[in-house]
Amino acid sequence: MFGNFIDQFWPSTIDGLSLGAIYALVALGYTMVYGVLRLINFAHSEIFMIGTFAALATLNAIGLSAPVGGLALIGLVLMLAVVAGLVSGASAVALEFVAYRPLRRRGASRLAALISAIGASLFLQQLFARVLIPWWFDLPKEKGALPIPKHFTETVDLLSIGDFIIRNDKLFVILGAIVMMIALDQFVNRTQLGRGIRATAQDPETAVLMGVNIDRVVSATFMIGGVMAGVAAALYLMRFGETNYFVGFLLGIKAFTAAVLGGIGNLRGALVGGLTLGLIEMYGSVIFGSAWQDVVAFSVLVLVLMFRPTGILGESLQQARA
Amino acid sequence: MALSAALALSAAACGGDDEGSGGDDGVVIGFMGDLTGENSGIVIPPKQGAQMAIDEYNATNPKTKITLKTYDSQGRGEQAVPLAKSAITKDKIVGLIGPAFSGESQQVAPVLEEGKIPSISPSATNTALGKNGWKYWHRIVGNDEIQGGGVGEFITRALKAKKVFVIHDNSEYGKPLGEKVEATAKTGGATTQVDAINPEGSDFAATVNKVKSFAPDAIFYGGYYAEGGKLLKQLREGGVKARFLSGDGSLDKGLAAGAGVENAKDSVIACPCLIDPQGTASPASKKFSEAYKAKFNADTAIYSAEGYDAATAFIEAIKAGNTTPEDINSFLSKVDVAGVSKQVKFLPTGEPAAADVYVYKVEGETLPLIGKASEATV
């Protein structure tokens, strides 16, 4: 049991961080929307799913003839991330416009928005399952792998010291997530729109009185969350090379868990929560067997919330400093 | 009622066959399974096989014609049970081919038992089904325990594997199958290790790390092709080169599609079913495959031969002059004719008397038959 743990410590750590990095990026969307609107956007997992399909479409359009590695892979992933980010960002804004804004305008309760979120989530999943995927791939509606371009990622071990092997795609995921995180942190803390977001999170009424355009802030929040999910989707496609209409479901739950674990509403908490959750899952499955992966992860969540109900970092967006 | 009729109609339309309304002198046999849902890909072939057998029989202008009526259960027990009830009371079926899956079989069999309607499933492989003491239930395919034993033996005999890593998806199908493979491999002298994956997840890195650290000669996966493909892809990307094997849940070109053709190359998939368009196993299956291709413009696929054989058993009974469910059922206990996939003969438990496990090899996106698991070599 623990012998395995020592044997597989390094590979598990790397895998845990790269899995956690994707959780963290998706968690940002949950956390930002919660921070601003006090709404759990359950359709966010579908925004991620849309991102994976946008990246896949780009990949199909490029039509690689051989797997790429090194700088070419970085360039490719960057391109996929830009496309997926834009598509996901736009989808998130559109989602807000259709599913939440009318409710918000009429002053509906937050529960109504929650139901709307679940409805939007189901709608988007089924839209892909029943209409878009069969149309696009000319497939019957079946559960199974979608055809992914054969050549994509060339995996290279960048650094290998004994068991400590870092593979290029895993490193890209971790670095990608951290770069996006720093960029977002700077954006929220340094720009005028970022200040607007923080102000709205703190006190929407006062923010309006101070001249913040709340609709613009909400749109921006959804946009940013969507972009992050799109980048995560591009990284996910590079790392796992597969997608489907239900791809966001479990990942969305995990990302939401990561957001709660780190402290919902807290941007840095999303990073901490994501990486922690990724590591816990990997270590847990080494020690107890992979079947226990989710049990371990959620047990840790319960324990953390018992002693720190606001999550590890516990701060919310409104109080985030510098 | 309207629903079941509509579903049967639409299923018939998509199969492109003509179904009469069953004249006074005819009998009705049902076919039940997931004909339009997610897993219809493995239910339409046995339906077509059964249709073919019955069309061939009707073409001989027999005294009692048979009508095949389809019931689309979508693979769900809660839909299958009312369909079975209406099949018995309204359509007066004398026998049922199906239900296709084990879960729905578990729920439908008691209904059929009560209505005294014999059934033959072409594809429900769960071992426990044969242990209920049902008198009207039969299947024409080997169960998971037989399959697991066949693969386990194949791994130690033909592959000469000393270290075997078994992965399963914790499902009611994958877990017992994987455990049976593990137990058989152990008996065959191999050392084993087991891990389970969450089929809903997408990252199997922890399992990959375990496999790497165990360094097995062969890996068996008990589960379905969608996750099997993802798992295999990640194993190969993680540098695991051991031979990959799986069971009938992965006998689909989707495995190679999900894993990538290169990664899936030379994987071995076992199945208690016989899919043999080339006629490697017997001339009968070659003849069957050619007729099937001519009729449906498709190659024989999973369980098409078993669907044909299940229909054959009923046809034999009716040929012998049995037209009531009770008579047909007692005939089934002594039927003994050559089918396409195997000798059509049942044990008192309803299990098939002959239950060979066949192995298939992944080549590109095709799955050619190698042979019986007990004899084949790779």
From TrEMBL, chain A:
Q: Which domain of life is it from?
A: Bacteria
Q: Mostly located where?
A: membrane
Entry keyword annotation includes Transmembrane: yes
Q: Which GO terms describe its cellular component?
A: plasma membrane
Q: Which InterPro entries match?
A: ABC_transp_permease, BCAA_transport_permease
Keywords in alphabetical order: Amino-acid transport, Cell inner membrane, Cell membrane, Membrane, Transmembrane, Transmembrane helix, Transport
The membrane topology term of the UniProt record is: Multi-pass membrane protein
Q: Which GO terms describe its biological process?
A: D-alanine transmembrane transport; L-alanine transport; L-isoleucine import across plasma membrane
Q: Name one Pfam family in it.
A: BPD_transp_2
Give the transmembrane region(s). 20-40, 47-66, 72-99, 111-137, 171-188, 217-238, 244-264, 271-289, 295-314
Compartments reported by the entry: Cell membrane
Q: Name one GO molecular function term.
A: L-isoleucine transmembrane transporter activity
The family this protein is said to belong to: Belongs to the binding-protein-dependent transport system permease family. LivHM subfamily.
Protein name from the UniProt record: Amino acid/amide ABC transporter membrane protein 1, HAAT family
Q: From which source organism is this entry?
A: Thermomonospora echinospora
Phylogenetic classification of the source organism: Bacteria, Bacillati, Actinomycetota, Actinomycetes, Streptosporangiales
TrEMBL record, chain B:
This protein's species is Thermomonospora echinospora
Q: Which family does it belong to?
A: Belongs to the leucine-binding protein family.
* Signal found in the keyword field: yes
Please provide the record's keywords in A-Z order: Signal
Question: Does Signal count among this protein's keywords?
Answer: yes
Q: Where is the Leucine-binding protein domain?
A: 27-363
The name this protein carries in UniProt is: Amino acid/amide ABC transporter substrate-binding protein, HAAT family
Q: Which domain of life is it from?
A: Bacteria
